[in-house]
Protein: Helix-turn-helix domain-containing protein
Organism: Paenibacillus xanthanilyticus
Amino acid sequence: MAAPSNRMKKIPGTLEKTATHQQKILRLNGMSAIESCTRTEGATGTLFLEDHMLLFVLEGVYTVRFGAEVHTARKHQMVLIHKSVAIQYEKSGEPDSDYTLNYIMFFLKDEVIGEFVRMADYSASAEADSKSTISVHPIDDRLFSYLASLQPYFHEPERVKDGLVKVKLLELLFGIADRNAGFLFELSQMKRQARRSIADVVEANLANPVSVQDLAYLAGRSLSAFKRDFKAIYNTSPLQWIRNARLDQAKDLLAHSSLSVTEVCFRTGFENVSHFSKAFKLKFGFPPSALKQPSLPPTSS
């Protein structure tokens, strides 16, 4: 089992910049697609979705965790995830297929989804709003074959016209909607960015290294409105409150777990060990390493 990745990646941006030989990318204005094929007995990490994601598993297992929810997709299944959420993933190949993991991710911006919903002439005005952030759907043999037929495009992306990628994507979406009545409804709901409780958003993302601007987006507010509403609730700025809450959590983990200083740093949303250590000492009066030394166990702030 591979060691967990504590640093959160923002995708598709991070993956587009750090793609490896195991990943192939197609880009189009309004969307991007990434095909990944590797062998692994287990890999974990955290992602912050900048766009809506549609992930198709061609081989292996892909598990997504969002809060208390756990969703697992295997071969012949797909996962639809709304944008602007932080998720944990675990992915691996199956033992009987030499641990091969093969999947395709499509990242869709609101305008592409809106265009497709208009083309499908679909209106969900009479239906209740969807509350699902993540859903898993089956894909039949015909769609599975269609996805396999797209893989050659990833190997020569420079020869693929933008228009062709868009046509292929729209054809894929129509194919899914034709076989899955709920899929089109879910897509029609994805553009609706509701205002969420600031407390819920902050609590859910306290351990994730997201920016205040990311938190504002997650809460369905402008940055200025988020800061104003946050101060009305907590009587301080988001940066100060979140830093103190993370440091309190870090102190508890250092004192009551076997995690190292580095592990605690990333586990509590900090991205730089040096910065974490300085902030910790400034707040508590001693370095985080002191709590890992039995002979020097400061316990009060």
